[in-house]
Design a protein that fits this description.
- The structure holds two protein chains of two kinds.
- Chain A has two domains: about 5-215, Spore Coat Polysaccharide Biosynthesis Protein SpsA, Chain A (Alpha-Beta Complex); about 225-295, no CATH class.
- Chain A is built from twelve helices and eleven strands.
- Chain A has a seven-stranded mixed β-sheet with strand order 3-2-1-4-9-6-10, sandwiched between helices.
- In chain A, helix 8 packs antiparallel against helix 10 (about 245-265) and helix 10 runs antiparallel to helix 11.
- The longest helix of chain A has 21 residues, at about 245-265.
- Chain A is α/β, with parallel strands linked by helices.
- In chain A, about 45% of the residues lie in helices and about 15% in strands.
- In chain A, strand 1, helix 1 (about 15-25) and strand 2 (about 35-40) form a beta-alpha-beta unit.
- Chain B is of the alpha/beta class.
- Chain B has two domains: about 20-225 and about 405-420, Glycogen Phosphorylase B (Rossmann fold, 3-Layer(aba) Sandwich), CATH 3.40.50; about 230-400, Rossmann fold.
- In chain B, strands 11-10-9-12-13-14 form a six-stranded parallel β-sheet, with helices on both faces.
- In chain B, strand 10 (about 275-280), helix 11 and strand 11 (about 300-305) form a beta-alpha-beta unit.
- The longest helix of chain B is centred in the first third of the chain and has 27 residues, at about 110-135.
- Chain B is globular, with a radius of gyration of 24 Å.
- Chain B starts with a strand and ends with a helix.
- The chains are: A alpha/beta, B alpha/beta.
- The interface between A and B is large, with 44 and 43 residues.
């Protein structure tokens, strides 16, 4: 049995898969690794190429194919089901780890456990956020010293990105299935459930980013994002309620602005304006401040 | 490359599962368990609350524990990492609730308004939060613990179709009518009983407790006694026991330890090698110590406070005395019996007289006889070692049915019954 399973969902992104596997090969951590790739019903050429890339890779790869495209949460559940090693890390095809990520995270986990950490732990890390149409890298810090539920619901100081994580396999199994009603934002739901189950997110104490998120809004449906946000908002309504009505309205404002951004980046300006109008109704003052700063750009 | 496989199309959410994750959440049924206060509370009900959540999680249910603590923090007892824990209390509470709480404590406000605002401040948000949870998360069954959570949960569930089972851990007459138990606000007492109309089932500890409920509720009553935790059963009873009378419980009026003290004062001088040890803390601790001193028995009537690891004490001491007025389930009594101690108690003590039988596993005393009658029963056991041994030997068998497994299975059966009927109803529709 390997020490670490690296779980990768793939859908029609051969270049991204190659980039991702290169970053795994470059890791300085030298423990035994098993890579699991689940192809989520890609086009035949893409699925074949993904399989060949797996076969040619220098480390053991388990390749699983969904018979048809089932979406990200279903694919993650197939990956969750395939776990066989005592440790697990997630990485989406198209995203990258820096060479020291696993080594620093394993050190961090060992340190936390040696210090007597009793709660289930997820080792996250700081990361770079890079828009695919832009050369600039922005370092994003994962702040784990806050009220983690609140921080996850706000989503600026602590973001729910699965590919930042390394943890014991048991901690993922105990959270249970990814919610298949969430084609988007299933990570956020999964992180919130982990913390509600007594889990604690931590980071290795390394000040630099340890991975890169190649970010794009292109081709993503603003309405789908809005529906998923609304679903999360209902599912965790009692948590939003806990922090008061202003917090709740502010989250609604950001939910609408988030959808507006997706609509605008996909050139659907009418839809973007609809969402911005809804945002303005939720928090008029916040919206005016936004107008002063950025004008009508969401 | 090691393996290659293909998943089936068109499977349900857990259809792709063949591993450990599927086994962990095999039912997919969601159970919410509600209690009002949980953080850092180490009482018997809180222990059962946490253990029930763990038992249901271990049996494949998705369990969410809901509580309403103004203070942050974790439960005193361990919770399984598969169980979600949500504190519903707002942080901070809205100003209207703080105002209502402030006004409800002012002497110049008419009594009726004080009651109304006090109840509003204590329950309004709790009910609203539970209502949101019930309507949006749609748990299959909700179990609620004790009246401070039973009433808000039942009111929140009214009209939602969510099935709520309030659990009662004491004698219903006391819980539902006594102004000294739970919230003394008369509005609360009124809602406490009326809200039961919305219950899917009503849990009591012993079936006899169900007889107290009005006719239209009685058919919904289910009896499920508590259990003796496995940790006590690991202690090994000593062949030669120490000359000690043991009592365990909260040092409060309802436990009636002052009668035990008065009884001991009557016989202590005749039995200088014997001692009484009362483990526990509570509001009467100081006065009881002072009274023991006044009666000149402070050397032999010991009140050492709280103690963990009680199994060892049950295993080494000779007689267990429980003079309480009433109990829901005399847990410490059952634990003592499980470890072979003969019990002395009053015969009218509900929740104890269900399983302590005079002359079989203990001596039951007529309360009208007071301290002298209690002293007489203790003296009889002190002076008759063969009787102690005979009664003690029957103890384990008398509580053999109070097991964790049976308790958990009782809840599983009830949950399955409730969810089966809802599945059938949905199917019919």
């Amino acid at each position: 049995m390997a020490t670490l399973d690296i779980l990768i969902p793939h859908y029609n992104d051969i270049d991204g898969l190659e980039l991702t596997l290169r970053s795994i090969a470059a890791q300085t951590w030298r423990g035994e690794t098993r890579i699991v790739i689940v192809d989520d019903g890609s086009a035949p050429d893409s699925a074949r190429a993904a399989r060949e890339i797996g076969e040619a890779f220098s480390q053991p790869v388990t390749f699983i194919a969904n018979a048809r495209n089932r979406g990200r949460p279903y694919t993650r559940n197939v990956l969750l089901d395939a776990i066989d090693s005592p440790y697990v890390a997630w990485l989406d095809a198209g995203d990258e780890w820096y060479a020291e990520k696993l080594a620093l995270q394993f050190e961090g986990l060992a340190r936390a456990e040696a210090e007597g950490a009793k709660d289930p732990l997820w080792m996250s890390c700081h990361y770079h956020w890079k828009w695919t149409d832009n050369q600039a890298y922005r370092r994003k810090l994962q702040r784990t010293d806050l009220d983690q539920i609140r921080a996850l619901l706000v989503g600026t100081d602590l973001r729910a990105y699965l590919w930042t994580l390394l943890a014991r396999a048991e901690t993922f199994r105990n959270v249970g299935w990814f919610d298949e009603r969430l084609p988007r934002l299933q990570d956020l739901d999964y992180f919130v459930r982990f913390v509600l189950k007594g889990g604690r997110i931590t980071e290795p104490g390394h000040p630099e980013a340890l991975c890169i998120y190649h970010k794009t809004d292109l081709g993503r449906s603003a309405d789908q994002i809005r529906q998923c946000n609304a679903y999360i908002f209902d599912k965790y309504r009692v948590l939003y309620n806990r922090y008061g009505s202003k917090f709740r309205r502010t989250r609604i404002y950001h939910m609408e602005m988030h959808s507006a951004r997706f609509a605008a980046n996909n050139a659907d300006h009418r839809l973007a304006n609809d969402y911005m109008w809804k945002a303005a109704r939720a928090r008029p003052r916040l919206f005016l401040r936004h107008l002063k700063r950025k004008g009508f750009r969401p | 490359m090691r393996a290659q496989e293909e998943t089936e199309a068109g499977e349900p959410q857990s259809g792709h599962a063949r591993s450990d994750v599927a086994a962990r959440f095999r039912h997919g049924k969601r159970i919410a368990i509600v209690i009002r206060l949980l953080v850092n509370r180490s009482g018997g009900a809180e222990r059962i609350y946490c253990e029930l959540a763990n038992m249901l999680a271990a049996r494949g249910y998705e369990v969410t524990c809901l509580h309403y603590d103004a203070a942050g923090g974790r439960p005193f007892f361990p919770i399984d990492p598969r169980v979600e824990l949500i504190n519903l209390h707002p942080d901070p509470p809205p100003i209207r609730h703080r105002l209502a709480r402030w006004a409800s404590r002012r002497f110049f406000v008419p009594r009726s308004l004080r009651d109304k605002w006090g109840w509003f401040a204590a329950n309004d948000i709790f009910i609203a939060q539970l209502h949101d949870f019930f309507t949006l998360a749609r748990p299959d069954v909700v179990l609620t613990f004790m009246p401070p959570a039973n009433t808000p949960a039942l009111l929140a569930a009214a009209g939602t179709g969510v099935k709520v089972v309030p659990t009662n851990h004491n004698v219903p007459l006391e819980d539902y009518t006594s102004p000294e138990r739970w919230d003394p606000n008369p509005i609360d007492r009124k809602h406490r009983l009326e809200a039961l109309d919305h219950a899917a089932r009503i849990h009591v500890i012993f079936s006899r407790f169900g007889e107290w409920f009005p006719d239209h509720l009685r058919s919904r009553v289910v009896a499920m006694p508590n259990y003796v935790s496995g940790e006590f059963l690991s202690a090994v009873p000593k062949a030669v026991r120490e000359p000690c009378i043991l009592a365990v419980g909260r040092i409060a009026g309802v436990k009636n330890y002052d009668t035990l003290l008065a009884a001991w004062a009557l016989i202590a001088r005749d039995h200088p090698e014997w001692k009484v040890v009362v483990y526990g803390t509570g509001p009467q601790l100081k006065t009881l110590k002072a009274e023991a001193k006044r009666l000149g028995v402070e050397e032999s009537f010991l009140l050492p406070g709280h103690r963990g690891n009680l199994g060892e004490e049950y295993a080494r001491m000779s007689i267990f005395c429980h003079p309480a007025y009433f109990e829901g389930f005399g847990l410490s009594v059952a634990e003592a019996l499980a470890l072979g101690m003969p019990v002395v108690a009053f015969s009218d003590c509900a929740g104890v007289n269900e399983f302590v039988k005079d002359g079989y596993n203990g001596l039951m005393v007529d309360r009208a006889g007071g301290a002298p009658a209690l002293a007489e029963a203790l003296k009889r056991l002190i002076e008759d070692e063969a009787l102690r041994r005979r009664l003690g030997d029957n103890g384990p068998e008398s509580v053999a049915g109070f097991t964790e497994e049976r308790y958990a299975q009782g809840w599983v059966d009830l949950i399955e019954e409730l969810t089966e009927s809802s599945t059938m109803a949905n199917g019919d529709a």
